[in-house]
Specification:
Rossmann fold; 343 residues; 10 helices; four-stranded parallel beta sheet; eight-stranded mixed beta sheet; alpha/beta
Length: 343
């Protein structure tokens, strides 16, 4: 019997097909997609649900939550796997958020994919990515893989480790701090031995909420601390994420020192401060250099080798679980939940 695979349309370039006037718009049924990519219907029993018709730039945590609940309902309905077609710009955020929200109790493979060109374009990567995603799904079902993955070009990436690295290349995603979960070539799909498998002893226990009010700030030369202080004083901020220069370094001298900002956030406003690195594949070693150590002593929490994408997603997720104290946040940020950080 064919495996039952549900495709969830979440907007983006990949699921666009021409209407009667030739204008591109999101597909409304699986038949429209299968007509262009017949391999999908030949290899699996496919159902299609359109959930969003948005450019992924406009996806936010409300949509993440909606997607989590849909996946949960399908998970309980005994589908064999789920594919999510999504725009590429924020795919890593959505896929990482879904992985955290579903947690280690996931029992089926969930694959995100997208494309750089629409299905009908000459030389499109959409058909290739859809076909490869189905290949990955069928192999994952056979091997009882239970991961949230991004499949793009010939690569299989852990969702919580992936980043978009190009607006034009067909190999548009990378996993800079963790090996690819698998490779797709002419003879099949090859997963690494450490890929996550379904564990029947762990129940599916979703945690679909994400805290609003997180401010992520790129640290650049000349960033004025006074502007951040005014933002904190205005109220409403629930957390600060500094995307640091280097291995967690934060300016700590003269009028551009952000150390007073960190101290005020933590001590006066009771707002947690996380520090990630902007370096692709980097790590936060905040105790090595003076500027990093100053921020650490002021109460900042390093995010180690998480991508800055996943640092923000996990920060929002952790706060939404009611985790607020410094020690509890240090513990949860450093806990490897679904493979997002090196244990």
């Amino acid at each position: 019997m064919k495996k039952k695979v549900v495709i969830l349309g979440f907007g983006g370039t990949i699921a666009m097909v021409p209407n009667q006037e030739g204008v591109l718009e999101p597909a409304k049924s699986v038949e429209e997609i299968i007509q262009l990519v017949p391999y999908l219907g030949e290899m699996a029993d496919v159902e299609f649900y359109e959930m969003e018709r948005r450019d992924s730039t406009n996806i936010n945590p409300t949509h993440w939550q909606k997607l989590v609940y849909k996946i949960m309902s399908l998970h309980e309905g005994k589908v064999d796997a789920i594919m999510v077609t999504h725009g590429t710009d924020t795919m890593a955020y959505t896929a990482g958020a879904i992985a955290l929200a579903l947690g280690p109790g996931l029992k089926i493979p969930v694959v995100f994919t997208g494309s750089q060109l629409p299905l009908m374009s000459v030389g499109t990567d959409a058909k290739f990515n859809l076909e490869n995603s189905m290949k990955v799904i069928l192999q994952a079902i056979e091997e009882k893989v239970a991961e949230v993955m991004i499949v793009f070009s010939d690569r299989v990436l852990r969702a919580s480790r992936a980043m978009k690295n190009s607006e034009a290349k067909f190999r548009a995603f990378d996993s800079p701090a963790f090996p690819d979960l698998g490779l797709i070539d002419a003879v099949g799909v090859h997963f690494i031995p450490s890929i996550r498998k379904a564990d029947e002893s762990i129940p599916l226990d979703i945690k679909p909420h994400f805290q609003r009010g997180i401010m992520a700030i790129d640290l650049v030369p000349g960033l004025e601390p006074g502007h951040i202080m005014k933002f904190l004083e205005a109220g409403g901020c629930q957390g600060l994420l500094f995307k640091s220069l280097g291995a967690g370094n934060v300016p700590d001298e003269d009028e551009y020192s952000l150390i007073p900002v960190i101290k005020a956030a933590v001590e006066k406003f009771k707002i947690p401060v996380l520090v990630s690195t902007k370096f692709v594949g980097g790590n936060t070693h905040m105790d090595i250099y003076g500027p990093g150590k100053s921020a650490l002593d002021a109460g900042a929490i390093p995010t180690r080798d998480m991508t800055d994408v996943m640092a923000q997603v996990k920060f929002m997720w952790a706060l939404a679980q009611g985790i607020r104290s410094h020690d509890d946040l240090v513990k949860i940020i450093n806990t490897n939940i679904i493979g997002e950080i090196t244990a």
